[in-house]
Amino acid sequence: MPTARVTSDQPPPSRLAVLVLLFMTLTPPQLTPAAAFGTKVEPGSRDCFVESVPAGATIAFLFRVTNGGSFDVDAVMTATTVPALDFHGRVSLMHTNEEFFSMRENTTTTVVNEWRRATEGSQTYTAPSVGVTHHGLPAEVTVCLDNGFSRRSPKWVEFQFLRHDAADAGKDPREGSKRAEEEVEAELHKHGSVLFELATVTERLRLVGEADQVKLASLIRIIQAGLVGNLVLLAVMAVYQHRALTRFLLRCAPEQ
């Protein structure tokens, strides 16, 4: 009899539809595109990166969280420098005298900038010039990305370091130069500064574009999952209504 098929031991269609929807909505999206990102900061971990900045040079640091959790991360940027000397004559003593050697090892670390639960950020730092320190030793910039506040969600962070050297980089400050050469060098450094600013803005826009692409891909997956879930739900409801209506009509049909 057709009625025996309707009353089976299978779970109700409505419960099956709920299970299908829960499976499709709770399943995390594929994270294969994240392999192309800058770094993956695991939950509860901290990644640090170090860059050397010559005396008088400027470095720009840009970052953006492109995937993972709430798209946020803690970050801190520090600069480590050697204390300045009193005059140029002491530079040679730093390599021979124990007192000045210990002075070279006794560095100072300062916090340049700090971000809390930030999605993006940027910061520039200029190392002390030779005229200020009298030794010309480079500074050391350290950037740490911290995902310690997250318990389960890793964060994919893309970052970039851009450096703009000083006008007198690589030149002995005791050597003179012609006025024309100085003017040309100053003009080139001026244009280089403009290009450095443009490169910084361009890099920031690129990071924003890549983050938007990741969000768009995630949104497309969610929409596709929703469409498939709606189709499955409609199909299950159609089958359920067909069987229920068939059973109802069989019960209401007059016996012959």
From TrEMBL:
Residues 46-163 form the GOLD domain. Belongs to the EMP24/GP25L family. One of its GO terms (cellular component) is endomembrane system. Its main location: membrane. This is WGS project CAEQ00000000 data, annotated contig 19. It comes from the Eukaryota. It holds the Pfam family EMP24_GP25L.
